[in-house]
Write a structure and sequence with these properties.
Strand content: 15-25%
Radius of gyration: 20 Å
CATH class of the largest domain: Alpha Beta
Number of strands: 7
Largest sheet: 4 strands, mixed
Structural class: alpha/beta
Distance between the termini: 31 Å
Order of helices and strands: HEEEHHHEEHEE
Number of helices: 5
Helix content: 25-40%
Shape: elongated
Strand order of the largest sheet: 5-4-6-7
CATH superfamily of the largest domain: Metalloproteases ("zincins"), catalytic domain
Number of domains: 2
CATH architecture of the largest domain: 2-Layer Sandwich
Length: about 180
């Protein structure tokens, strides 16, 4: 029963964000005409929060990150991508895009800052971690199984003395226990 309530809350949250995105696309004149008919889509990304796809004329937002983060944070991402759509191809995160961000009500920041980097955006945890066997320090997270299973002859660029022969990939969750990697405890 508790899971159903939680699922309802998530569904309401996603619906609220989707309605906001559709309203904003209309408000900024990105829908309704034959030449200019942008749409909003959810995508499966776990690293990037949003994306403006010019050729397809769509604004994409990560469903995974939207579920984890606040409605306000996701709305800001929607507005960030609308600013890209309004400035057009070739502007990236330049001064024109920043002005457009301010105009549409988004923070004029290139990328979000995750909680791990001192920001306030929650991230999807990777399935695997590259760690230092001796210290437990995490150097990288992987969302897919890494190509290399043997890290005994590998090191981190710029940190060879600290990492050579000391790296190991471990599974982050108990559900990965069928993997060839040791589960981190």
């Amino acid at each position: 029963m508790v899971e159903n309530i939680k699922m309802n809350d998530i569904a309401k949250k996603l619906n609220t964000i989707q309605q906001f995105a559709i309203e904003q696309l209309k408000h900024w004149g990105l829908t309704g005409s034959y030449n200019n008919d942008w749409c909003f889509v959810w995508d499966k990304s776990v690293r990037r929060y949003g994306q403006c796809r010019y050729r397809k004329q769509e604004i994409g937002v990560s469903k995974h990150l939207a579920k984890l983060n606040s409605i306000e944070e996701t709305k800001d991402t929607v507005l960030h991508e609308i600013a890209h759509a309004l400035t057009g191809i070739g502007h990236g995160h330049d001064v024109h895009w920043k002005r457009m961000c301010i105009k549409v009500g988004a923070r004029p920041q290139r990328c979000y800052k995750s909680e791990g980097q001192g920001g306030n955006v929650k991230q999807v945890q990777g399935k695997y971690k590259l760690i230092n066997k001796e210290t437990g320090k995490v150097y990288k997270e992987y969302y897919r199984r890494p190509k290399h299973a043997d890290w005994s002859e590998r090191w981190i660029v710029g940190k060879k003395a600290e990492t050579f022969g000391k790296l190991q990939v471990v599974a982050s969750r108990a559900s990965e226990s069928g993997s060839p990697y040791r589960l981190q405890v």
